[in-house]
Amino acid sequence: MSTYAQPDWGALARSPQFRELMASRRRFLVAGTAFYSLYFLAYLCLLGFAPDTMSEYLFGSVTYALAGGMSLVVLAFAMAFLHARKSGEWERMAQAVLASAQPGEARFTKVPAHEGSPR
Description:
Strand order of the largest sheet: 1-4
Number of helices: 4
Largest sheet: 2 strands, antiparallel
Number of strands: 4
Structural class: alpha+beta
């Protein structure tokens, strides 16, 4: 019967570094979601309440409505790029959480194998 080593997730989750990591992710994601949602809502309001303005041509055969719709796509890619850049910082913070565990501290706990498991 074998056992698997599992990290002590509870102790890691209580660490100040982990809490800062989660707070940083939450701030970024809430702010990004709020900004994109408000931008999209403003676009929809312009379409609904100013249809004459949105149907005017910006240049060539491109209307304000089309430009606004394309700006939503560009904004989505910009937000994905910003998220990818920020994820590097979050990865460094996660590594610091793991490294902050004291060498003498029990970082891993043994979990008994399930009966009937092939291992």
